[in-house]
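Lab notebook: predicted structure, single chain.

Context: the supervisor wants predicted structures on file for every construct in the current expression panel, including those that have not yet been purified. This is the next one on the list. No modifications to the sequence; it matches the entry in the shared construct table.
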Amino acid sequence: MDDNILLKTLRELNVTLHDQRNILYKYVNLKDAKLILGDQTIFLQTAENFNDPFELHLGFIEPSGINDIISFLRKKGLSQPGLEDELKMIGDETFRESTTKALLSCRSTYGIYCMSKINDSTLMWSHYADKHRGVCLGFKVPTMSGPTITVEVKYEDEIKPLQHSFETSGTSVRWMCCKSKVWEYENEVRLIDVLNNGVFPFHKSNLCEIYFGVTTPQEEIDALKAIIKQKDYPISNSGKMYINKYDFKLAIEEFNL
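Prediction complete. Output recorded below exactly as produced.
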């Protein structure tokens, strides 16, 4: 699909594209930090491995029926009387079941890299960075070789089904950025590859910040510093989190690597 058509459709669907001038943050444990830094790779997971059971939940999207595909074919000038008759013979229920299976396959196909707009979330450090022993990496949006798009997650109070469309992958992208408001603290942005998942290399210029947790051991900090020096990452900002004495917030003690 033409990129301009996809972007236009995403705007119509109220999907917010991330401003790629802004840094995004990945909270990780020490083991994953060493893999990311040492191998210079990131891992795009599939939704079936996420910790939210509502990821790509079918309640967020209404599977297309026979009339939807016929309307699509007519609009594209591809419809023929014989073809329409064959489609109608399949039956709407059977066709919707087939569409549902195709949508569910997205759970094991689409590659998603979850990041956050912020680096000082106490909950994010607790949940994703090994209870503040880990690391928060700051990325310029990683440049991938395949077709990717970076979108902000929409947090909803209730499930509002989105009509699936055959015309664009925009509805699928919108589907993948719907989450409950209970996750709003994550301030999540997703890098999505609709064709691939797994391990992908990134250019070292994409990695520009690193922050260590309140209880990250000094020997682990030193080990990660050595990897950064060896790989020659152009880190512009770095520091260690500490507990603010006057409120329930984390602060950063900046230092040069």
